[in-house]
Fold this sequence. Notes:
Blueprint: E1 3-8, E2 13-19, E3 22-27, H1 33-41, H2 47-52, E4 62-67, H3 76-111
Antiparallel strand pairs: 1-2, 2-3, 3-4
Amino acid sequence: MMKDVTYRNQRRSFKIYQYKDITKAEEAGHALDGIELIKKRYPFVDENWLKNNKRFYVKDKVTAYVRCHEEDVQNDDIGRREAVDKLNRKIRVQREAAVKLFEAFLANQVKSPATKKK
């Protein structure tokens, strides 16, 4: 049976499950993370327009799995720490992917604008 532990700090609330040598960390509420990073890097973009375009949303629930190596001694604290580190890496990668998608959208708009001069 997996142990279910919920951690809450000032900003985040994530769950950690442990079963034998597998540690799973999950956190929900990340759908708008990419849009927040786009707004930070490109302040001229309208936030409502970004929220209406669902293509810039990222996965809301992020999950990370970590398995203890067979030869290592199992340590719950290290497993939790590694799972949360992997979770943080996945969240950062997701946010950067949304920014890259937005930059590709901008490059496409500049390359072929909707209105052409005659």
